[in-house]
Design goal:
Length: 316
């Protein structure tokens, strides 16, 4: 069992991987030589697989998991966690926005034995545009206001997990693997380590464009809070109250001769549109929760490995 496993989800990252390996392996020299780097890859259209395979030939500590199809970043991370064997596991991106320079401090804190989860927390987000920052801030604010567990703000999937934590995470067996939330669910004492987020080394994000980030944030809200269901009920009561008030105003307008308002088709049309829109929003929220129940009852795997390079029980 190596002391340290590093899980790196990748998709079409042939340009970033060589730079990543150079930087990380240089930094790991001052931490430990007993490690493994697992690139957990969704099937890519570039030479990502070939680049990692060549790296494995030069250094067997570099390993590859290739999924049978595109499961997305959560599935890739879960696959890496499942195949990891280290006493501690670090999950990080390949684009260098998760700075490898933080690794020695994370490992040092873990070795001291008090903390089983070490979470780097962004002091700045220089690599993100203002829209992405606003989406991230809003998502973290809403989740922490409504969720049953607290998820640290400005913290992504970049983190160190003790083997005990990893085993508990894998035992959860949830179809929607939102690592940031599930880490909070299993508990254990954690420590935040501040860092400055840098721009990507090359290319653009493959897993989480803006719409993907919004989807992941919504997924987190649905998975860890029933607040949207309660919000839907509140909106329903408000809309019903407005409809009653509008009805009373229409009756008063009719009795007093206020015909412009009482017979205003435009006003009535706006009211009906407002009520209909609220109903659709409510049905959408309810559908999201029902869809989650449906997915969980099917118990489909989060990931399926097609090829494993560098593992003792590799199936390649």
């Amino acid at each position: 069992m190596p002391e340290l496993s590093i899980v790196v989800p990748v998709f079409n990252e042939e340009l970033a991987i060589p730079h990543y390996l150079t930087e990380v392996q240089e930094i790991l020299k001052e931490v430990t030589e007993d490690y493994e780097i697992i690139f957990s890859m969704d099937p890519s259209t570039d030479n990502t697989e070939e680049v990692v395979t060549e790296a494995n030939k030069k250094d067997p500590r570099v390993k590859l998991l290739k999924m049978s199809r595109r499961f997305g970043q959560p599935g890739a991370i879960w696959g890496g966690l499942s195949y990891s064997t280290g006493k501690a596991v670090i999950v990080m991106d390949v684009d260098m926005q998760d700075p490898p320079e933080v690794i020695p401090e994370m490992v040092k804190i873990w070795r001291e034995g008090e903390y089983k989860v070490i979470i780097p927390q962004r002091r700045s987000r220089s690599g993100d545009n203002i829209i992405k920052r606003m989406v991230a801030y809003t998502a973290y604010w809403f989740i922490n206001k409504t969720a049953t567990v607290e998820i640290p703000r400005n913290a992504g999937d970049f983190r160190l997990l003790d083997r005990k934590v990893v085993e508990e995470l894998l035992n959860l067996n949830e179809t929607n693997a939102f690592l940031r939330g599930l880490t909070a669910v299993v508990g254990f004492k954690h420590k935040l380590v501040p860092f400055d987020r840098k721009p990507r080394v090359s290319g653009s994000g493959k897993y989480f464009p803006l719409t993907g980030g919004i989807f992941i944030g919504f997924n987190g809200v649905i998975a860890f809070s029933g607040a949207l269901l309660r919000l839907m009920t509140i909106i329903g009561f408000i809309m019903a109250s407005l409809a009653i008030v509008a009805g009373i105003l229409l009756i008063i307008g009719k009795l007093t001769g206020w015909y412009q308002f009482a017979t205003g088709l435009a006003t009535l049309g706006v009211l009906l549109l407002f009520l209909s829109g609220s109903q659709f929003i409510g049905m959408g929220i309810l559908g999201a929760y029902i869809g989650r129940i449906y997915e969980e009852t099917k118990r489909r795997p989060i990931f399926i490995v097609d090829k494993a390079v560098g593992f003792v029980k590799a199936n390649d």
